[in-house]
Description:
By secondary structure, the protein is of the alpha+beta class. Helix content is 29%, strand content 22%.
Amino acid sequence: MPESPEDRQSELESLWYEIAQAIAAGRTQGLVCPECLSEGLEVEEQQGRTTVRCPNCKRFVEVGIATA
């Protein structure tokens, strides 16, 4: 039975969450895209939001990372 769209979305959110956690911990180099497995995610911080994009598959996510 194929995965439902909800299952796939949940899986992707979980994978990108791990990337967001790595960035929050200060790791911005050598990150691997969880969707196409290409190394070299681009991280851009602007106005309290962080955009992470994959130059290979063109996927991106925007996350808010709290700073103290």
